[in-house]
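Trying the structure run again after the queue cleared.
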Amino acid sequence: MNRLEPALLDLQNISVMRGQKIVLEDFSLVIRGDEHVAILGPNGCGKSTLIKTITRECYPVVQEGSSMTILGQDRWDVFELRSLLGIVSNDLLSRSSGDASGRDVVLSGFFSSARIFPHHIVDPRHRALADNALAQLQISHLAERPVCEMSSGEARRVLIARALVHKPRALLFDEPSNSLDVFARHSLRQSMSSLAKAGIGIILVTHDLSDLIPEIERVLLMSNGRIIEDGPKDEMLQAHRLERLFKTEVELDQRNGYYHMW
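Done. C-alpha cells:
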C-alpha cells in the first residue's frame, strides 16, 4: 500500500457513549488498509462499541480535537462503506434466518441484510459473485444448504463469504471463534490465513489469544475503553503484559506461529 494513501481507519481522541456511560474515552487508533492487526482485550473493555463505531452503528460525541475518518472520509453512505469493509460478526449469524440457504446469506451482503427478502432484486452478476465467494473459501457445497442444517463452523465460513462478496479492502472479524469446536476453529484459521496471504487487510477483534493467526503482525491491547499498548506481535504477547491486561496470572506458549494462554 502507498503510505501516502489515507489510512483505512483514523480515529483521533474520540469518545463514544452507550446510554449514559462513556465506553470509549479519548480513544485513538490508526490502521492502514494493508495491515493485519489484532485488537485484544477482556470482555467488557469496549471492543463491541469500537466495532459498532467503525460500522457506523454508534457515533462519537462531538468534541473539540476529535475526528474520525475511514479511507480518508469523515462521512459515508453506510451501504457503500459496508462494501469496502467486510464484517464477520456473530450478530449477523444470529439475525440470519435458519431456512436461508448459504447462497442467500452471501447474496444478502449486497443488500446489507441478513437474508434475501421478496423486494430484493438479485441479478445474474450478484449470483456469480456470490458463487465465486463461496468457491474462494471452498464451500460451494453449502450454496443450497439451509443455515439451520449447517454446523457453526460452516455457518461462520458462509459469513466470511458474505463479507468477501464485494471484494472489500479489508475484513473485520469480531470474536470469530466463539462457539466453534476444535475442527471448526482450525478451518476458520486456515480461511483467515489464506485471505491474509492474498493481500486482504485483516482486523481481528477478540478476547481469545488463540484466534490470532501467524499473519497478524501488530497487536493492540485494549482495556477500559482505551488502547493501552500497541506494537509488534512478539513484543505485545508477553506474559507480564497479558497478566496486566487480563488481571490474572497467565502461562503463555507459542507453536507454529500460534499463541496459547492459560
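The chain has a mean pLDDT of 91. Worth checking whether this holds up in the mutant runs.
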